[in-house]
Design brief:
Blueprint (H helix, E strand, L loop, with lengths): L1 E6 L7 H12 L3 E6 L4 H13 L4 E7 L7 H9 L3 E5 L9 E10 L2 E11 L5 H6 L3 E6 L7 H10 L2 E2 L2 H16 L3 H6 L11 H6 L14 E5 L8 E6 L1 H14 L4 E6 L4 E9 L4 E7 L5 H7 L3 E6 L7 E6 L2 H14 L2 E3 L4 E4 L1
Parallel strand pairs: 2-3, 3-4, 11-15
Antiparallel strand pairs: 1-7, 2-5, 4-8, 5-6, 6-7, 9-14, 9-17, 10-13, 11-12, 12-13, 14-15, 16-17
Helix pairs in contact: 2-3, 3-6
Length: about 350
């Protein structure tokens, strides 16, 4: 048996390479993995390993109690035909980090295990690539007899993930992380990004893969660099941001105007239109809405619209160029991967 202690970070390598090498040396054909938290980056790169090593099957189990595992990471696993289980224990977080390579697999459990990697890293960008982590790899040419029993215990904590369970979790993930600060999204490892960036950097960088679908979001924002209209401030919310607002107003039945609560406490009717051919949602914002006069002059800042759940005024709007507000709103979308850009401005949702 070959046993190695490893550390990652800096010049010491990364967990992604360690996993790949261990599976290659043992000629493993199946992966059984239990990670506290799984991100979209993590499952994408696990899938890369699956393709490189000709892996025949994957079983993955992760925690969803803490709303850190990305809903879209779980969806990706289901889409690829993996066996996926989730754990939501009221007693505490499901917190293992172990991956087993084997020659067979039955009902998610490894058979004839040849490689075991156990350590501190999650199935995330930080855990696989950038964090300082430590762990242990074990490899042998004969079976690890205890591996099926160990993984079976972990697998038993979970429940097979269904479409309904995933939909419910996506809403919980949305609500929990909408209330977390951008600093917390980094510190807790919700984000695959390791630090906040300024809006200028976002304009130069491609949007990340989203951690959740726009179809469950309840907030959308857009930059104020371009708009039309003199009588009203006509602002367009592109693509996913537009679809979020379309869903909110469609659910109210209010047409062709929707009642929007503004920062001054006044409810104002605002005309809207949705263009299905390009996914654009246009909102005609009255000129007396707080923040609009400054937006017309300066052409900067953002408009954030959030669903309120109130049938009478189902949306709330804030228009501001305040740096802290812009940084927090845009930064949250950046960290969750829920943003995009047009040639003139940024937009996002969460």
């Amino acid at each position: 048996m070959k046993t190695d202690l490893y550390t990652t970070g800096g010049s010491t390598g990364d967990l992604r390479s360690i996993i790949n090498r261990s599976l290659k040396l043992t000629e493993s054909r199946y992966i059984s993995a239990a990670f506290a938290y799984s991100s979209i980056y993590g499952v994408y790169h696990l899938h890369d390993v699956v393709q490189q090593r000709n892996i025949l099957g994957v079983s993955l189990i992760s925690d969803i109690r803490d709303c850190i595992t990305h809903p879209q990471a779980l969806q990706f696993g289901l889409d690829k035909g993996w066996s996926v289980r989730v754990v939501n224990r009221p007693q505490g977080t499901f917190h293992p980090k172990i991956l087993i390579g084997s020659l067979g697999q039955q009902n998610g459990i490894p058979i004839d295990a040849r490689a075991i990697i156990v350590g501190s890293g999650n199935l995330s960008k930080g855990g696989l690539l950038s964090n300082v982590e430590c762990g242990l790899t074990l490899r042998k040419q004969t079976e690890f007899a205890a591996a099926p029993k160990i993984f079976s215990r972990l697998w038993g904590f979970g429940t097979d993930l269904t479409a309904n369970m995933l939909a419910d979790y996506a809403v919980r993930f949305r609500d929990r992380n909408a209330n977390r600060s951008s600093i917390d999204l980094v510190a807790l490892g919700v984000s695959d990004e390791s630090k906040l960036v300024n809006v200028g950097v976002m304009r130069q960088s491609p949007a990340a893969q989203p951690s959740m679908k726009s179809s469950v979001a309840k907030a959308a924002w857009a930059g104020l660099q371009s708009f039309t209209g003199d009588y009203t401030f006509q602002l367009e919310f592109p693509r996913d941001a537009g679809d979020v607002l379309r869903r909110i107003v469609t659910a109210t039945g209010q047409t062709p105007k929707v009642t929007v609560k503004c920062d001054d406490g006044i409810d104002r009717p605002m005309k809207y239109a949705y263009y299905p051919h390009n996914g654009m949602f246009r909102l005609n914002i009255p000129n007396d809405v707080p923040g609009i006069p400054a937006a017309r002059i300066n052409r900067n800042g953002i408009a954030l619209i959030e669903g309120t759940g109130d049938a009478n005024s189902p949306m709330h709007i804030r228009v501001s160029a305040d740096q802290n507000f812009v940084r927090e709103t845009a930064g949250k979308s950046f960290l969750l991967g829920t943003w995009g850009k047009t040639p003139t401005r940024l937009y996002g949702w969460y």
